[in-house]
Write a structure and sequence with these properties.
heterodimer, A: 312 residues, mainly alpha, 11 helices, B: Beta Polymerase, domain 2, Cytochrome-c3 Hydrogenase, chain B, 3 domains, five-stranded mixed beta sheet, 18 helices, 40% helix
């Protein structure tokens, strides 16, 4: 079977759709706030603008500062090839499937934190330390929730997980699946830096988490990081929709079902976006020290999900 | 309310002998007590302890050419007494020193240092006598001396820069923020010492935008000085303008027509509510509850539009003038105001309900940035921040001006002193202001809008106070010959209140600083002048 075509197609789709998802969320948020808001394709224009701009690199920055944007972008791009998107078969299947996904994302985050620390600015340091605090709890919660799904499918390979889910469309109603979905949704909120964990729209450096780490970046580096963040967001949303609601997944990239698969996929992503927007507009940001409590909830949900797979 | 009284001159003379020279009632109907020398510590202690007096402001004046001395003025008020008592203490130019009160009364800390910076008078015994108002770039000059010409070219300063207290200890970091900030705000430097997230202490440095306003007032024709007063703090331009005009009117016995007094009251309240609504929205934004801010901004815009229709200025600039206001009411405007206030009231109730319905917002604001009542009292906190911490002061009630004696309103006071209650004070005050506006629109607003202008007699002094939306605004003027000013002292409430921020953030986490800061929302420009 030709592997180049699905890989290229999925990568392109991810690269193209991810800024749009960011734009859609922003526009919907604005509408909820009775604002008109930016156009949905504004993130593309932002990326275009940033890519053409010059860069200011702090004198105190080392090579880490310059490597970070590439690592962030490439890990997110690579992960996007390892999860099923419109077809059950992911184009790339590496050592351990879902484990590789989690740890590639962790690698990107690790470098982002290093990049924040590298310049020696106090805001970057604050951001990195907060990000690490949060991910230290978000990561195990994500693992536990994903293991629940993997156990049900008897495989950590995400393509296998999706395939097994296709067979039993209503499996997501099982208690373990719903609990795991809850856990993963909280992780999604935390990992994408959204309210109530982080405020992506704030200008207040002292309250930032993700934005604080990238304060010193500008121009193409910033574009790579922003694009990487959008990719990561879409990856997590995709992971969520396709492991729990595999409706309309095409069996492979060559069948005509691919168009239907894409349509279903976009609708599912849109629904998750709506959920995110709803959470973001109806909540205030949590006090920083309460965030671990929220993530502990995610972890407990995940753990309960894992236990209940054996019970039911 | 019991009627409190300041002691008689004879009683004070018995206690303090020759130190008390004379007492008279000034043209502004306030008490002026002249002392024999700069050491007034005994009298201040007596007034504070035995007469419950609160020190309102401290300032100096250069009277060397007229009276052969500097004068220090100490303004006191008593709860329940509309009269101010102003202690005038001469400081001889050959020994330009006066005993500092800051150790006992931290509220005058910055104001005494301003006197040092601007007049070269030394505050003996001041716990922290470093420069405050004159920035590092200023050489060693004292610009409020009369023999210091306004346009003096100054050499570049090469001396030692301000040194911050270093943060020490394992894991303790210094986090400098500012003076240039994100967003459209003014400059101020915040130096945090943090241990991880919790703030150990905060050091402030203000006066980056010192404009020499008090110097600019000197020799300025009074009609131009009104505009200068309006620009002291942009969001309080009507309050500062009114405070200044009132001072001139009191100094020169101008009777302001009834209609103008009512109009001033209306605009003062409109200024209060547009700022309070903006602050409520901004506090919600800082905890990420943006929906509330969207509605608050909408309401603020409603008020701006109303302001423009009524006065021609969204920010109520150029409305007040000596003797009244610049414009008479036109037909239909009173109705427009009444309808707008009604529409605003129901929308504001919805906004408050929206905020109350958000548990996550309440969770963030309660117990955040607590300023304890004792601390607030020591620091002499005024206005919204004070009333949220048990300081029951409101100039509108305590020293009625404009038409406030005709309206009944409640002064909200809370003891908790956290961000939530500072917002609660604002919510309550907006509701009270709406009540005042509603009963004002019941009255006949038409009539003469301004007294007939006449020359202003020279060498008259007057103090005037206005409850701006931030708190107590004080203007003290001395008129000069030819309709000009000799001196104008301006005290914005922010000057008292910045140290409150230092107290309120201690022990909080650094991520909560923006919302604590916003809950005070102090003016940089008003502080720096």
């Amino acid at each position: 079977m030709n592997v180049i075509f699905p890989a290229l197609a999925q990568l392109l789709l991810f690269l193209i759709i991810s800024p749009l998802v960011t734009g859609v969320i922003r526009t919907m948020k604005a509408r909820f706030q009775t604002r008109r808001g930016p156009r949905v394709w504004q993130p593309y224009l932002d990326l275009h603008k940033l890519l053409r701009k010059g860069m200011i690199i702090p004198d105190t920055a080392s090579w880490l500062f310059s490597v970070t944007p590439y690592v962030v972008f490439l890990t997110a791009a690579m992960v996007s090839l390892m999860i099923p998107m419109v077809a059950t078969e992911a184009p790339l299947s590496l050592f351990g499937g879902v484990l590789a996904v989690v740890y590639l994302l962790a690698l990107g985050r690790f470098f982002l934190a290093l990049g924040g620390l590298d310049t020696g600015s106090s805001f970057g340091g604050l951001g990195s330390s907060r990000e690490m605090t949060i991910s230290a709890i978000a990561e195990p919660a994500m693992m536990v929730a994903i293991f629940t799904v993997a156990i049900a499918a008897n495989s950590t390979n995400l393509s296998e997980v999706a395939k097994s889910a296709v067979g039993q469309s209503w499996r997501f109603l099982a208690p373990s699946q719903m609990l795991a979905f809850g856990a993963l949704f909280i992780v999604l909120i935390a990992e994408t830096g959204r309210i109530p964990v982080d405020n992506p729209a704030t200008h207040l450096e002292l309250t930032m988490i993700h934005e604080a780490m990238i304060l010193e970046y500008s121009g193409p580096y910033l574009a790579l990081i922003e694009w990487g963040a959008s990719l990561k967001q879409l990856v997590l949303i995709t992971l969520l929709v396709n492991t729990f609601f595999p409706f309309g997944l095409s069996s492979d990239w060559h069948s005509p079902g691919i168009a239907i698969g894409l349509g279903f996929y976009l609708i599912k992503v849109l629904i998750i976006c709506c959920l995110i927007v709803l959470v973001e507009t109806t909540n205030a940001k949590m006090r920083l020290f309460r965030v671990p409590e929220l993530l502990a909830v995610a972890f407990i949900l995940g753990a309960l999900a894992l236990i209940s797979t054996f019970l039911f | 309310m019991t009627v409190a009284r300041f002691p008689e001159a004879a009683a004070l003379q018995e206690l303090f002998g020759e130190q008390v020279l004379s007492m008279r009632t000034g043209s502004d109907e306030h008490l002026y007590l002249v002392t024999g020398g700069p050491d007034i510590r005994g009298i201040v202690e007596h007034l504070r302890r035995d007469h419950g007096a609160r020190i309102v402001t401290v300032f100096a004046e250069d009277r060397r050419s007229e009276d052969g001395a500097f004068f220090n003025y100490y303004v006191f008020e008593q709860f329940g007494n509309p009269q101010y008592l102003i202690l005038c203490a001469p400081v001889h130019p050959e020994n330009p020193e006066f005993p500092s009160l800051s150790a006992e009364i931290p509220a005058v800390n910055w104001q005494e240092r301003e006197m040092q910076d601007w007049f070269g008078l030394k505050a003996v015994g001041h716990p922290n006598p470093r420069r405050v108002a004159m920035h590092d770039n200023w050489p060693d000059v004292h610009p409020l001396l009369k023999d210091f010409p306004l346009r003096t070219p100054l050499p570049r300063f090469e001396g030692e820069r301000h040194i911050y207290r270093p943060a020490m200890g394992e894991g303790v970091l210094q986090v400098p923020v500012g003076p240039v900030h994100a967003g459209i705000i003014e400059p101020g430097h915040f130096s945090f010492a943090v241990a991880g997230e919790p703030i150990l202490y905060l050091q402030l440095r203000m006066f980056y935008t010192h404009k020499g306003t008090e110097k600019l007032f000197e020799n300025l024709p009074v009609h131009k000085a009104v505009f200068l007063a309006e620009s002291i703090s942009g969001d309080s331009s009507f309050s500062h303008g009114t405070a200044f005009c009132q001072a001139i009117e009191r100094a020169s016995d101008i009777d302001v027509p009834r209609s103008a007094l009512l109009t001033r009251t209306i605009f003062l309240e409109l200024e209060r509510i547009y700022n309070h609504v903006a602050d409520i929205g901004a506090i919600a934004t800082d905890v990420g509850f943006v929906v509330a801010n969207a509605h608050a901004s909408r309401l603020r815009e409603m008020l701006f539009t109303l302001n423009e229709h009524l006065s021609g200025s969204r920010l109520l600039r150029g409305v007040v003038c000596v003797g009244g206001v610049r414009r008479a009411w036109q037909s239909g405007q009173q109705n427009m105001l009444r309808n707008a206030v009604d529409a605003f009231e129901s929308e504001f109730d919805d906004l408050v309900a929206l905020i109350y319905s958000s548990d996550s917002t309440r969770d963030r604001l309660e117990h955040t940035g607590i300023l304890r009542p004792e601390k607030a009292k020591d620091l002499g906190i005024v206005g919204v921040g004070g009333r949220a911490s048990g300081i029951d002061l409101d100039v509108r009630r305590d020293h009625p001006y404009a038409a406030y004696d005709q309206f009944a309103f409640r002064v909200p006071v809370y003891q908790a002193g956290d961000v939530w209650h500072r917002m609660q004070v604002r919510i309550d005050e907006v509701k009270e202001s709406v009540g005042i506006l509603k009963s004002a629109t019941e009255q006949n607003l038409y009539g003469t809008h301004c007294a007939v202008p006449r020359p202003i007699p020279p060498d008259r002094c007057a103090i005037s106070s206005v409850e701006g939306w931030r708190g107590e605004i004080i203007h003290w003027v001395r008129t000069g010959p030819g309709n000009r000013l000799e001196r104008c002292k301006v005290k914005d409430p922010s000057l008292n209140n910045w140290p409150a921020l230092v107290e309120a953030v201690q022990g909080n986490i650094i991520a909560d600083f923006p919302v604590i800061n916003k809950s005070f929302n102090l003016s940089y420009s008003g502080t720096d002048r």
